[in-house]
Amino acid sequence: MADKSSNTTLLPPPDNKVVERFRALPTQTLREYSRFTDLYKDLSVLEHVLEGSEKPSKLPYPLFQFITENFSDDRRIGHNELGEYFKGVMQVVAVTKVHGSLNISDVIFHHQIGKMMTAKHPNIIRFLGYCSDVAEQELVMDGEVTTAEKWERLLCFEYLSNGNLSKHISDELSGLEWHTRYQIIKGICEGLSYLHKEKFIVHMDLKPASILLDDDMVPKITDFGISEIFRFQGIITLISQPTGGNITLQSEYSAPEINFGGSITSRKVDIYSLGVIIIELVTGSKKKPSIANQVLRRWEQRWNGSSKCTPLRHQVIRCLELAESCLNKDPNRRPFAWDIIHELNKMVNEANAYR
C-alpha cells in the first residue's frame, strides 16, 4: 500500500473540509479502498449531505467501514433493539449497524428509509444516508481464511454531543434549570406534532432514550422507524402475550391500551408516552405526583424566592396538568401534540407579559 503522502497527491488542493478531517488518520484505515480517490469521492458526498447541498442517499459499505474504523469497539457508543451505534471519525455523524438477525425485508427497510429521508424538522434527528448491500467478510475455518457474503444494513445520522434525555433526568433540586426543561418539553411536542400532523408517523416507542440533545440542549426525536419495522415484521412482543425470542417494546412509557388489544398505531399512544416524559422532566420521577404543590415547593426552594418565579410556578403546575391529561386511560380524551404546544406557547406569552 502506498503511504499517506502518495495517496493525498491524487487529491485537489487541500481546501476541502473532507481532506482536512481525514489527513491525520492512520494509513491502514484506508485499506478498504483500492484508491484514495474513491474515498475522497464518497466522503465528499457525505460532506455535501452534511452541508445541505445534497439530499441523503445510499452510501457504499466501505465508507461506513472507514468512518467507524471497521465498526471497532472504540467507536461503539450504544445499542438498542435495532442494532449497534457507532460514532464516526468525522465527529458529527453516528452510524447504526442493524442486527442481521432481524431479517428485515427490503420492502420494509426502504419504506422506512423513505420516511426518514423526508422527515426534516429542528426537533427531528437528521438522517444522512444508508447502506443496504451484500458485503464480504473474512472467516477463519479450520485455520484457513475464507470469505463469506453477509447482507448489511446501515443508517447514518447526525451525532449529537449531549446524548439522550435519560442521561439528564433529575429531581427538582438538581440538574437542568426549569427554563431548559420547559424548552425540552416544548421541543419534544414540536417534533411529535410534526411527525403526527405533517408526516403521519406514529413513533410507538417514545421515551427519553429516543430523544437526543444537541450542544444547545435542543431535543431531537430519533428511532421513530424502529417500532414500525418491528410491527411490519410481526415481531413485537407485548407483556401480556410473551413469546420467547421476540423483541419487547413494552415499557413504563407505553400506553395501557397496548396490553388490551388497542390500536398501537394511534397517535394517542405517543401522547401517553409524552405525558410520562413530561412528569419525569418536571419531577425526576416517572410516577405522577400525588400532591402537585409538593413539587412546586421543591422548585421554589431551588429558585430561592427569586421574583422571576411567579410565572414559573404556573408553568410547573400547568405542565403537570397537561401530563395528567396525556395519561388519561381513554385515548380519545388525551390531547393532541399541537394542543399542548398551544398551551405551552400561551404560558410563554404570559411569562413575557409579566416581565
UniProtKB/TrEMBL annotation:
Swiss-Prot/TrEMBL keywords: ATP-binding, Kinase, Nucleotide-binding, Serine/threonine-protein kinase, Transferase
GO molecular function, one term: ATP binding
Top-level taxon: Eukaryota
Ranges where the Protein kinase domain occurs: 71-348
Catalysed reactions, semicolon-separated: L-seryl-[protein] + ATP = O-phospho-L-seryl-[protein] + ADP + H(+); L-threonyl-[protein] + ATP = O-phospho-L-threonyl-[protein] + ADP + H(+)
Pfam families: Pkinase
EC number in record: 2.7.11.1
The protein's name in its UniProt record: non-specific serine/threonine protein kinase
